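re: ur question from yesterday

yeah so i grabbed the chain u mentioned. its 180 aa long if i counted rite. heres the sequnce exactly as i have it in my notes:
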Amino acid sequence: MAGAFILRKNLTLTAGARHYARALTRNADRADNLVQETLTRAIDKAHLWQTGTDIRAWLFTIPCTINVNMVRRAIRDEAGIDIQQISASLVATTDPTASRQLYELDRALACLCDEQRQVILLVGLEGMSYEDTAAILSVPVGTVRSRLSRGRDMLRSLLDMPNRGRHGPVEDDNRLAPAA
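ran it thru and got these structure tokens back, copy pasting raw so excuse formatting
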């Protein structure tokens, strides 16, 4: 019974899982493998899902765990990542400015630590709540908020965007200076 429900839910969440997997792995082939492994594992482990809990959060926990294991295995095996291969998987647009912005965002995301990148992808890309993100990553909600804040600050810095204070963007000192 749970297996059939999980299978139906998996099929409806596959598109979101693919987006998340591609952003997480930064490689189309690895992302497809991650989604496939996620679907297989979700069906095999359907008995572990508790009725009444958020199945979406449960399903997104699986690729997180698998990806962490894959990264650890790659580090252990001293597998390198080819930046040229990764950049080839970026979405091409007819707008060179948008294409450049996507490229810069992709490079900036790559500079974040895994913990910050995971939170930004789950909250920003997948639109998950802080609570669901905390459940997926097995951390307190406060940790999610902290990682998200630090990750956003780091992205702003890497993308040369103005920092935001508690009350919105910080004004540039040059704009406050009187005209000469």
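noticed a couple things. The first strand starts at residue 164 and ends at 165. also The chain has two domains: 1-77, 90-166.
anyway ttyl
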